[in-house]
Amino acid sequence: MNYQTAISFGLVHIPVLMNSAIKNNDISFNMLHKKCGEKLEYIRYCPSCKEKVKNAEIEKGYEYTDDNFITFTEDDFDKLKSENDKVIEIISFVDISDIDPIYYDKSYTLTPNKSTKSFNLFKEALRKSKKVAIAKTYIRNKAYYVVIRFGYENIIMDTLYYEEEIKMQKEKTKKEFNDTELKTAIQLIDAMSDEFRPEEYIDEYQTRLRKAIDKKINGKEIKQYKKKKQRSISDLMTALEESLREQKNGKK
Length: 252
Known about the structure:
Elements: E1 3-9, E2 12-20, E3 45-46, E4 51-52, E5 60-65, E6 68-72, H1 74-79, E7 88-94, E8 104-112, H2 117-129, E9 132-139, E10 142-151, E11 154-160, H3 179-191, H4 204-217, H5 236-248
Parallel strand pairs: 1-7
Antiparallel strand pairs: 1-2, 2-8, 3-4, 5-6, 7-9, 8-11, 9-10, 10-11
Helix pairs in contact: 3-5
């Protein structure tokens, strides 16, 4: 991506480069014609002109009534942005614990572009203060509020969903359990508590998929994956106590 922008921090202007912090490791498949095995093409087709349409011939249109459109060019979209919209404008600083993870969308890394002194000063200030910045910016043609934080020895920017985009309703917990069951559940949580070690979390399905691809290439049959059977205990308290006992005995 390598998108050039800048952090606006009070009267401080910090030029940065923005890059995606995430890469998709999922195996991709092509769509094939079942009849002949040929790879299918993605074709943009105009039913009125009855012809294929090239990217250069495409424009964006908004349908305001049935079959009536107004069109927008990239220049039109740019006119809707102020000069401030073209930078990452910091609004305030908050504790990261104040932000529910449901608001997080995509992550980007911000790296210095030109001046490294102001960038490194800002990075160290974020690290020392243990605060995160709330800012607003544009990515392509969409306005975002973002979190700027210190992590992995980098400055990371996370785009946030708007409140109106979150489809969650607050629901009160119905107390259909007793105090002993609650106490045992908390004990089980404590027994299963550990450090967050993301390097141990492996995409098992993608691993199995890669092995299946190798088998298919070598003409071998894919066998049904069998997961280890788990015991099912219908009584809640018995299930909690058994689980707690297994944790104490070192079983997982």
